[in-house]
Design goal:
Length: 220
């Protein structure tokens, strides 16, 4: 075999290997998409970004805006019962708008679960993980499969004040009904300072609501 034939054979072999590699990638990708697991895989990859500390939510700016919460927000419980955000009026509310089809939502959920575990004994702080999925059962099945124990609800109707174009979006509502934080994009909430921020809001120390107290990390 001469040099020209050797090079031709080598190129064909390399092309064949590349085609096989892309075929495998395609098959795996198609399989993940068909089963719906592509969202979780992407979310898992994005969760790594939560530890970089690129951006922080401006809680101080939210307080200055003085946005008022709308408690007229009908919800569906995991048991299929109708309830409303008004059930939690007078408490500090951590409300996260999310969906099972949203990778950033999936990425931040483990750290929200850790936050919930750390503050759930405080009866003045409540969690409303509000699913935007059209089929509520998808949210129930997902959280059960993942072992998440924070309270999950399905949104029946969303008031204009929570009409964010970004998913996920997280709100912290004070006992007085002020939206003291509106945070668009995924974030790391299980930091000591963010826990302190929630406790500060709950204890009515409004003057201490600022960005230094809540250093969750935002990746949009």
């Amino acid at each position: 075999m001469n040099s020209k034939e050797s090079k031709s054979t080598s190129k064909k072999s390399s092309l064949k290997k590349e085609l096989i590699q892309w075929s495998v990638i395609f098959v795996i990708g198609a399989g993940l998409y068909a089963t719906g697991y592509h969202t979780e895989v992407i979310g898992k990859m994005q969760s790594v970004l939560l530890y970089t500390g690129i951006m922080q939510p401006d809680t101080d700016e939210s307080v200055m805006h003085g946005a008022q919460a709308d408690y007229n927000m009908p919800l569906l419980t995991i048991d299929g019962d109708r309830t409303s955000l008004s059930e939690f009026e007078g408490k500090t509310i951590f409300m996260n708008l999310w969906a099972t089809w949203c990778p950033p939502c999936i990425a931040e959920m483990p750290n929200i679960q850790r936050l919930y575990d750390d503050v759930k004994d405080d009866e003045n702080i409540v969690f409303v993980m509000a699913s935007l999925d059209q089929d509520p059962q998808k949210a129930w099945d997902f959280t059960e499969r993942k072992g998440f124990t924070f309270p999950v609800y399905s949104v029946i109707a969303k008031p204009r004040v929570y009409d964010s174009s970004v998913v996920p979006t997280t709100y912290v509502i004070s006992p007085q009904g002020d939206i003291v934080m509106e945070h668009q994009g995924m974030a790391k909430y299980d930091t000591d300072s963010f826990k302190e921020f929630l406790k500060t809001v709950s204890s009515n120390k409004a003057a201490e609501w600022n960005t230094d107290e809540a250093d969750s990390t935002d990746i949009r």
